[in-house]
Amino acid sequence: MNFAEIKGKLNTQETKQLVDSILNVGDRATFVIDRGTFEVLYLNEKASELFGDKVDAYCYELICDNENACIDCPMAQITDKTIVRNRHSRALDAIGKWQYSVIRWFDNREAVLVTLLDVAVVFGDKEDSQIGRKERIAREGQFDALTGIPNYSKFCANTENAIRYNPDKEYAIITFDIDKFKSVNDLYGMSVGDMILKHIANALRGYFPYDENYARLHSDVFAFFMSYTKRGEIIRAIEKVRRAIVASDIRVDISTTFGIYLVKDRHVPINLMCDRAKMAAATIKNNVMKFCAFYDEQYRDDMIKVSEIEREMKRALHNHEFKMYLQPKYSLKDNSMCGAEVLSRWMHPEKGLIPPMDFIPLFERNGFIMKLDEYMWEQACKTIRGWIDAGIKPIPLSVNISRYHIQHNDLPSIFNRLLKQYKLSSDMLTLEITESMFMNSPAKLADVLNTLRERGFKLEVDDFGAGFSSLSLIRDISVDTIKIDKNFLDQEIASDKGKIVVSHTISMAKDLNLQVVAEGVETGEHVEFLKNSNCDIAQGYYFARPMPVEEFNQMVAKKI
Ligand code: C2E
Ligand code: CA
Ligand code: CA
């Protein structure tokens, strides 16, 4: 803009009107500043409303509240291009987004047109007195009331702008939250919780003094975005933010987990990008060895699968889509069938057969395992009753018990009811338990299991050898049988050392008067070795795969 050209063509009044008509457009605070002396040559209505109409002032006094020219004044950096800088204005007590362009003023001197594009962060309580109502209203809905940093919607808008206007840069969105923040609130009170949130907001402000690339998304979830060329830069930024967060006077350990989403497809909505970063963080929750994780497309597929299963599970149970499969167990003494394990399969109307590993772990997390197991236990009882009624010698069935039941269910009364309803004796059911059941409330578990054993149910320790506590488990609870884990057998038996481990496990069990089952028996060599080691029972593909009841019945009928 060259105002010098107009000089002489208009009188003073006309000049003022012209300048006002140009520089009052858009309701933004605008100054014209002498580039050499920092003298304010002109300020529009908005600027005088916000900063006070001090004639003959210097910009460093008016805007920055300094007595002398600022050493880092952006006006020194402008060439002929317009630049935009985020800069803290002490007069506003806020970070403003300022635009600077060189112009020629009426008297031909070089001046800078300085425009406040946006007010970013407001600290303290100067807000009311110094900033107009309009700005305040504009900022409401964009800034988080507690911490004063941008909120979710402002973050989305800022990120979107950065990504859109910098197509040549790579961006990452990073979200993080405080581990066990709820317990912090419960333990120390809400005010300490608030203090921590404010402290984190300040840490972000301190780390990004000139950018508005961070936000509190909600509750204890914060985010920032950054451009990067190498992934290492992101990790380094995270480490620095973490360090800034840890360095606090608050006497509470603040530990944080970060999720990183690398923006590949720029059309994905920002809120979805944030969700994905959060998803990545969720994968390492409770893992003390990790504090950050990158989002992987696989997570999304997994999450979709999980939500589909959760949507369908109740219908599936109601429609009898879960089928009971039976896998026979054989006595190694005389190769006779001495029992069978109940295993479930999901016959999905569209997806076909779904193996238990795809739904059991999820049901164990969401509690639906209780419903499914009770259903399978009932199927087992019904089947045994069917055999008895048909005059067939009943085969004892083993059912799997999940950890969840111990905490949430009255197992003895459930099994009592089933036995009564199907008129069965308790020795027809073996209960397979795993050591993972002992992780919580071992005393309660011991109580429940002892009651069940007193009532005549057989207890079998499943996956024996897979964990570390198998031995202490059989020390603390009276059980009848151990079932050596199939992986253990498979890997170990190939080596001489492994054979020694397995055969010694068997002889130790025998010394304790326990019966031994081996699962995952796949080859004649396995059978030979197990027989020589004095193992009692074998289960595995070598003998038979798990099969539907009808097939199982046909197999039994053939043998009779
Ligand atoms: P598990 O209790 O250890 O069951 C044995 C698993 O080994 C079964 O897998 C069985 O099909 C498989 N298997 C049997 N013989 C062989 C063999 O020779 N080689 C190999 N490699 N594998 C063999 P499945 O049926 O896929 O079940 C997986 C797990 O899911 C089970 O492991 C059990 O923990 C759980 N599960 C299955 N059905 C139910 C159920 O109805 N309720 C509960 N709570 N858990 C269940
Ligand atoms: Ca089992
Ligand atoms: Ca097992």
3D architecture notes:
With 560 residues, the protein is an alpha/beta fold. Helix content is 42%, strand content 23%. The protein has an eight-stranded mixed β-barrel, surrounded by four helices. Strands 2-1-5-4-3 form a five-stranded antiparallel beta sheet. The longest helix is centred in the middle third of the chain and has 22 residues, at 297-318. The chain starts with 11 loop residues before the first helix and ends with a helix. Ligand C2E binds next to strand 12, helix 13 and strand 16.
Give a quick account of the main beta sheet: strands, pairing sense, barrel closure. 8 strands, mixed, barrel
Strand order of the largest sheet: 11-12-14-15-16-17-18-19
Spatial shape: elongated
Helix content: 40-55%
The number of helical elements comes to 21
Report strand %. 15-25%
Count of distinct strands: 20
How would you classify the helix and strand content by structural class?
alpha/beta
User: Could you give the distance between the termini?
Assistant: 103 Å
Please tell me the overall pLDDT. Answer: 86
Low-confidence stretches: 121-130
**Which hetero compounds are present in the coordinates?**
ligand C2E, calcium ion
- Rounded to an integer in angstroms, the radius of gyration calculated over CA atoms is 36 Å
